[in-house]
Design brief:
single chain, 195 residues, alpha+beta, NADH Oxidase, 8 helices, globular
Length: 195
């Protein structure tokens, strides 16, 4: 049941870019291969160039490579079944929204713009053959305590990033989730009004 042999491309209702249809969020990461630094930097560069309101760029990342104390600290902040699989990812990235600037001026759009930056990161990573899985089940206080994190940075999520692993290494419950059909609600239910 290797995920590398599964067809995971979405069956979209209208054509979209191949990289978007093919992108998915695995839980099986290769626990032994190192991260390709060029691909990691390309993903972070894509995030850097995401659009933001007034060009405020209200996102910050703590990037931790597997085998480091920082990776272990971020893994320790994960909650629930995320702890079962995310540690195998080559990189864990804690994502923060800068909800106010250094002068205390609020950025009410910060989490929206962070989402755009992470989307750019995800698409670039997938285009380069890496995989991303975002997690909201995190202990935010533990992320807030990571090195370099200022009080005005709000912890939002953790991103597992790396090369695809073998789903058979996961628990039976997670294996079932890994190979379950990809589904989304119909487009007509997503667009609530259109003129």
């Amino acid at each position: 049941m290797s995920t590398s042999t599964l067809e995971r491309t979405a069956s979209t209702s209208v054509p979209v870019l191949d990289v978007l249809a093919a992108r998915w969020s695995p839980r099986a990461f290769d626990p032994s291969s190192p991260i390709d630094e060029d691909k990691l930097m390309a993903a972070l560069e894509a995030a850097r160039w995401a659009p933001s309101a007034s060009n405020t760029q209200p996102w910050r990342f703590v990037v931790a490579r597997r085998g480091t104390d920082l990776h272990a600290a971020i893994e320790g902040a994960l909650m629930g079944f995320n702890r079962e699989w995310a540690g195998a990812a080559q990189v864990l990235i804690a994502a923060f929204a800068e909800e106010a600037d250094a002068d205390g001026n609020p950025h009410p759009w910060a989490q929206y713009d962070l989402g755009q930056a992470v989307a750019h990161l995800s698409v670039q990573a997938h285009a380069d053959g890496l995989f991303v899985h975002q997690m909201g089940g995190v202990e935010r206080d533990a992320l807030q305590a990571l090195p370099g994190v200022e009080d005005r940075f709000t912890p939002v999520s953790v991103i597992a990033l790396g090369e695809l692993g073998d789903a058979t290494a996961l628990s039976e419950k997670l294996q079932q989730r890994e190979v379950a059909p990809r589904v989304r609600r119909p487009l007509a239910e997503t667009v609530i009004a259109s003129a």
